[in-house]
Backbone:
């Protein structure tokens, strides 16, 4: 079956309920040189448009032509902003004739397709938008033939006009024979392929994982066993962490019994071609039990990585009791506790006082030691939360640099908030100051910056959000991602009217 994650799509079961849904998407972080998770808002309007918004800006607006079909939600920020199919619709809103693909208003050559009546679709389509930091142009796509609305024959993955993967579909639209598949989050520093055999859409036999960076290298894999319902994993497996990349070579190694993880599973970090045991724990029929040490997805020693682990107890696959957040400097052998808190006896529900770390805490790109201090009630943040930053200025100092208030039900941010930028670190100390109303930014928000070694933040930009809908309006002074370069932007109801650089 096709992976929804690989297609970068979420299929919503229903679009009857109009409202706003917040989801996480993939975004390329130029400073950290890695894919990071970023939040966007999706809204289905009363006039049947789907709106993608982020921080008060409408990224994309599309008319929903057929409410009877499952809605495809794109979860890659570049695809949302730049990728567009253009063509004609015939009867019953069916695509008809020649369709083209544009990327940032530019027509992509040899990428498009033709629709022939009701049955056959020949398509060259952009399944992946590429995470090329220089031009953000889609470099990787799938090419093949649809017949009777299902895939047929040879389908290939194409990158820079070269085949990098693919395989065969049979007459029933099922995968058969040898396949080379791309990893879910395939990009320049994580060019991972999975290679093996399909039989009637089920993986069988040995499957291997390879990393292509300067040369192909075997990094993981294991055996699939065919059963009546499909196929299951058996025996010894080496699996990759979700954030596996050149700078974060983390694997999980252990045994499967009839498709279930059993016994000891361990985390290994390949540091300069040396596999180091970094953590792990026990499974009982794929249920985590007992003491575990877990690594973050992006654990590593590269510039965009940090060495964060979580240590605590599992009971029936749920976290209970005290869990500590641990940090290790690249050159040190031991971890130190930098945060943590309690889970209740029901499991995996945060309670009481917690100290949490920022996503890029300890990144080697720059000293980024940001922590969040506050209270959880039934897994929801409540009351006052504080943002602290630790930096070295002749000596290690900690200071409160931000924070704000959550309502007592834990649903909304309210009142005055000071928040840190996503890439906050020693040489990029940027904060945002303004008001929340029921978790939406409203009114004036300022952007402030402080040079390393200085005490005070100074305003360098900002603008206003609407009182309804939290959309950017009027004149804004904004920053180019990952820099202090500013530009002037004029907004009307979340849409850009003009830009002055």
Residues:
């Amino acid at each position: 079956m096709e992976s929804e994650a690989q297609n970068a799509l979420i299929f919503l079961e229903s679009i009857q309920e109009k409202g706003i849904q917040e989801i996480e998407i993939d975004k390329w972080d130029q400073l950290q040189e890695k894919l990071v998770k970023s939040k966007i808002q999706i809204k289905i309007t009363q006039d049947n448009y789907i709106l993608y918004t982020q921080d008060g800006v409408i990224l994309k607006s599309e008319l929903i032509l057929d409410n009877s079909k499952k809605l495809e939600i794109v979860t890659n920020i570049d695809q949302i902003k730049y990728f567009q199919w253009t063509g004609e619709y015939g009867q019953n809103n069916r695509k008809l004739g020649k369709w083209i693909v544009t990327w940032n208003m530019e027509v992509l050559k040899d990428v498009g397709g033709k629709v022939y009546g009701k049955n056959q679709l020949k398509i060259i389509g952009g399944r992946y938008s590429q995470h090329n930091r220089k031009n953000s142009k889609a470099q990787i796509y799938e090419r093949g033939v649809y017949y009777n609305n299902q895939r047929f024959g040879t389908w290939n993955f194409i990158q820079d006009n070269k085949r990098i993967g693919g395989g065969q579909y049979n007459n029933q639209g099922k995968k058969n024979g040898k396949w080379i598949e791309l990893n879910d989050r395939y990009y320049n520093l994580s060019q991972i392929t999975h290679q093996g055999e399909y039989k009637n859409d089920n993986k069988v036999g040995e499957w291997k994982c390879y990393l292509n960076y300067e040369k192909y290298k075997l990094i993981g894999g294991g055996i699939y066993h065919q059963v009546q319902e499909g196929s299951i994993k058996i025996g010894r497996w080496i699996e990759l962490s979700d954030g596996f990349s050149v700078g974060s070579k983390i694997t999980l190694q252990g045994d499967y019994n009839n498709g279930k993880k059993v016994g000891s599973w361990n985390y290994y970090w390949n540091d300069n071609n040396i596999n180091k045991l970094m953590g792990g724990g026990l499974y009982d029929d794929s249920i985590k039990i007992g003491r575990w040490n877990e690594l973050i997805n992006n654990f590593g020693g590269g510039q965009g990585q940090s060495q964060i682990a979580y240590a605590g107890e599992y009971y029936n696959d749920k976290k209970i009791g005290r869990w500590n957040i641990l940090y290790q400097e690249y050159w040190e052998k031991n971890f130190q506790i930098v945060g943590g808190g309690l889970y209740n006896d029901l499991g995996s529900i945060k309670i009481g006082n917690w100290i949490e770390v920022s996503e890029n805490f300890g990144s080697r790109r720059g000293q980024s030691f940001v922590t969040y201090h506050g209270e959880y009630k039934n897994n929801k943040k409540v009351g006052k939360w504080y943002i602290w930053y630790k930096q070295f200025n002749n000596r290690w100092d900690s200071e409160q640099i931000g924070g704000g208030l959550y309502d007592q039900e834990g649903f909304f941010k309210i009142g005055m908030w000071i928040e840190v930028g996503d890439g906050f670190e020693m040489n990029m100390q940027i904060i945002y100051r303004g008001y929340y109303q029921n978790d939406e930014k409203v009114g004036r928000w300022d952007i402030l910056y402080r040079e390393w070694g200085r005490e005070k933040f100074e305003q360098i930009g900002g603008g206003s959000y609407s009182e309804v809908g939290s959309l950017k309006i009027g004149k804004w002074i904004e920053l180019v991602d990952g820099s202090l370069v500013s530009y002037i932007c004029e907004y009307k109801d979340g849409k850009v009217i003009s830009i002055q650089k």
Notes: The two ends are 47 Å apart (CA to CA). Residues 1-18, 115-138 have pLDDT under 50 and may be disordered. The first strand starts at residue 9 and ends at 12. Residues 129 and 138 are 4 Å apart (CA to CA).
